[in-house]
Amino acid sequence: MNFNQFVFRNTIRNKHLYLAYFFSTAMSVMVFFAFTALANHPSIVGGALDKRADSGMTAAAVIIYLFAFLFVFYSMDIFIQSRKKEFGLMMIQGMSPKQLKNMIFIENLVIGFFATITGSILGVGFTQLIILLANRLLHLDFALYFPSRTILITIASFAVLFLAISFLIRTRLPKMSVQELLKAGDLGKGKIKFSTFKAVLGILLIVIGYIVALIVPGVAVITVMLPVIAIVIIGTALFFNQASVMLIEALKKNVQLFWKKTNMIVFSDLSFRMKDNARSFILVAIISTVAFAAIGTLYGLEKILLGTIQNEPFEVELMDKPAVTEKGADTIDAIFSDENVSADKVLTSVYSIEDKQFLTESDYNKLAKLTGEATISVKDKAVNLMPENPQMGSSDETTDINTITVASQKLQVSKHIKTSLISVYMPTYVVPDHTDFGQVQATKRAVWVTKDASRDSLIAVGKRMEKELDTYASAKTYMEQSIIDGYAPILFVGVFIGVIFFVSAGSFLYFRLYSDLAKDTEKFAMIYKIGLTKKELKKMISQQVGILFFTPIIVSVIHGGVALTAMYHIFDMGMQKEGYFVLGLFIAIQVVYYLLARHFYFKKVYASLQQN
Predict the structure, then answer these.
(1) Over 90: is that where the pLDDT of 310 sits?
(2) 180 and 202 belong to one structural domain
(3) pTM
């Protein structure tokens, strides 16, 4: 048996030692495969997305590949550092440092090969599942297909990745003597160190990033986005690496808390765990925040656009010069008749004077009766109309104006009412019917309300209006469907990216948990012998796994909440319920992930204790 055969057989026969690393690596391959398969889907390549979205997907694929590189490299580094005793035993038996490096090189290639094959197979199934769900939930029409091109891209990409990591990881081998390697698990970690200055700086940077993101108005959010992201990432790194350790050390000084039941055991090495897991937490927090922001922004924007249209009280609206509106209204009436849709129509006049718009009392009441709203009586005064559902650019003028002038006539503003009967994008008033508008040319507005019409019929009406009218008219149901059809592929891509990033974060936490399994089992075994109960063991493991799984997620949820609030500020809105829904959904998924990981981890530890 030569050296290469020894390494290969050692890797295969001791597969249980490599399982966590293999699983995490395979997940990285699957994530990249699934996204690349989506990017190369015939429906998308054929033009479902515009060029900017296509460029965005290419950029996302590069980012995912870079994250996969960092993830695999860091996972392998953790794996290497946890095998110090094994390396010491091998060197005692005559293995030279050069052979040890070659062994790691070959091992990584072997694991990388099988992880690439396994991840690609899982990726094929995962991609088909996502496409089926997207077709069902988002009403897409993406066909299932076999991603042969993606298989080649994935194999080539990860062959390069694993080859590069295999060379780089040789430089990460522990530089210790044989004696130090053999005693690696017994040396202890010494005294925990942290910098109070760096800890406070990390918290301050996060707070400053939050404040800037939340107070900057409107589209200025886009200008400060990159600086804020940079500040928050640096702050997050310092928080996990320094501030978290400082907070834990402060808690340990609380004697009442530290000596309560099993808290002493949990807190004893918690600072070291936070320090050791800092890079993991930083990576998971950033990845998860990207997932929250991508899905929350796209999902929220779609709901905002649809909500704006759905709040319109009229099925069809046409507004233009009187002659154009009257001609268009006849065409629309004919289309409704051809499609067997019953509709009631109202014609009104709108006057625009000095950045204000006016309509008469009788015209307003026609619209109110058409939609079943309350009519009004102005009594020789004026009524200020305000938007019922304010949107970006809407007039928010309220009680600041007490009188208005209409063609040299002064009218007192009697009250302010909210309405959706007319678009309020400038100060808008209802005035008495006898008001003289002088030489101002009226704009004619025609609106229709339908009765018991099917959605398909209304969509057909909108399609014909688009083709047959010489002017623009809005058709509510048709516009809704157009937004859904045009937005669904982009929403699908955003959700897909978010899910991929979240799965990556979960698999990374899973690997980090199981990389400490042997050490934790040894610690629990000693305590178990002196009377630790099964219930206490389960509680300690629940706390330990909970800290690992929820610390980065809580931070990323806060980051994501601030990011979504800032994004909605572009539209002069606060945090929307869609944003809360996305954050809540991810927290629920993480809870399920935590419960499963805790169950299997406890089962593994307890089985090992029973054997001892």
Answers:
(1) no
(2) no
(3) 0.69
